[in-house]
Amino acid sequence: MELRLGSDAPVAPLDPWMAIAAAVVRTDDAREPWEPQERLSVDDALAASVRSELGPGQAADIVVCAENPRRADAATLRAMPVHATLLAGRLTHLGR
Hints:
- This protein is α+β, with helices and mostly antiparallel strands.
- The protein has one domain.
- The protein has helices spanning 16-25, 42-47, 74-78, and strands at 62-65, 82-87, 90-94.
- Strand 2 and strand 3 form a beta hairpin.
- The mean pLDDT is 88.
């Protein structure tokens, strides 16, 4: 079975980092986690948020994070700063 994360759009923001944070910390504020036994590791949450692996010769859709998600706290995961994005190998965003 393959796990995929999503959102509750349109009633919730379409933000993959909010879904990743919810999967990792299982709460959205200072309250105790809901169903803490369902927590995912950051690596598992990231894997469940991408559509495929990147291989040689493939045009890449890539997000370059300004922080390391593996070391980020819950607040940083929820609002992950993005340094750059590439769509089909073409630079579409470059932060400061």
